[in-house]
Amino acid sequence: MTAASSTAQPRILLAGDTALVVEFGRDSDPQFSRQVLNLDRNVAREAIAGVLETVPTYRSLLVHYDPVQIGFGTLSERLLALAQLPVPKETAVRRWRVPVVYGGHYGIDLDDVARAHQIATDEVIAKHSGSEYRVAMIGFTPGFAYLSGLDPSIATPRRESPRTETPPGTISIGGVQACVQCLAAPSGWHLLGRTPVRTFHPHRDPVFLMEPGDAVTFTPINAREFDALDRAAERGEVIAELVAS
What angle do helix axes 72-83 and 30-46 make, rounded to 10 degrees? Predict the structure, then answer.
C-alpha cells in the first residue's frame, strides 16, 4: 500500500507567525499532488478573509495569512475541512509543447546520462521527449518548473559536485524529477538540453507561463531553430505551443 492510498489525514504545520502548511504526506506520490492542487483551488474559490497567498508543492500547500484578520486555529479548521473535499475527476488541462535542442554544448550531460544507463544518446532523447510531464510546483528561481513523470529508466542521481552556474533555459533531470529552468542558476542536475522558452518574463503577459497542474511535453529541435525561437522569446513572444486538452 502506498502512502497516498493509506488513511492518513492531512496535518497542519506551523511556518512562522503568518504562515502554515497543510501536509498530505511525506513523499512525492502523484495522489498527494492532486490533493494539494484541489485544496489550492478550493481555497481560491472560498476567498477566505485573511488568506494572502498559497504556494503548492509536491505534497503540501503553504498558506500565508494575516493573523489580525484570521487566527491560526480558525484557519486550520477551515483548511482541514476543505482538504477533506473529494478530488474531482480531471477535466481540462493546459498542455504545453516545449521545443528543446539536446546534447552538445546545449546539454553537456547527455552523453554521461546515456553511458550511465548503457543506452545510446538518441534513446535518452526519445525517452525524455516521449513522456508527458506534470508541473508539480514552481520554485527555487522564478519560473523554475519541477516536473513529475520522468521515464524511470533514465532516472539518474544528482551530480556529486553541483555546478555554480547553469544556463537559462536548461532542461535537466535529477533523480526521478525533470525540470524547465528559466534563469541562469546553480544546479546539481544533469543537463540534457536547452529550450528557448521563457517560463518567466517580467515584461510579458503572462509573466509566468506555467502553473502547477499543467502538462508538458518536449519536442526536439536543431540549433538553427533554437536561435530563431530564442530571439522571438527574448522579445516577449510565447513560443511554447499551448495544445488543446
Answer: 120
> For cell 510579458, what's the residue?
204
Asked whether residue 76 falls in the same domain as residue 111, the answer is no
Residue among 205, 190, 200, 198 nearest 155 (CA): 190
Cβ neighbours of residue 220 under 8 Å, at least 6 residues apart?
99, 100, 101, 102, 125, 129
Q: Which range marks the domain in which residue 51 is found?
A: 3-83
Q: What is the CATH number of the domain that holds 49?
A: 3.30.1360.40
Predicted confidence at residue 8, as pLDDT, reads 58
179 and 230 co-located in one domain: yes
Cell of 83: 482538504
Cα separation, 191 vs 133, whole angstroms = 17
Render pLDDT for 42-62 as a digit per residue (tens, 0 to 9).
Answer: 999 999 999 999 999 999 999
Whether 149 contacts 131, CB under 8 Å: yes
Average pLDDT taken over every residue of the chain: 93
Beta-carbon neighbour count of residue 88 at 10 Å?
9
pTM over 0.85: yes
Q: How far is CA 218 from the centre of its chain?
A: 14
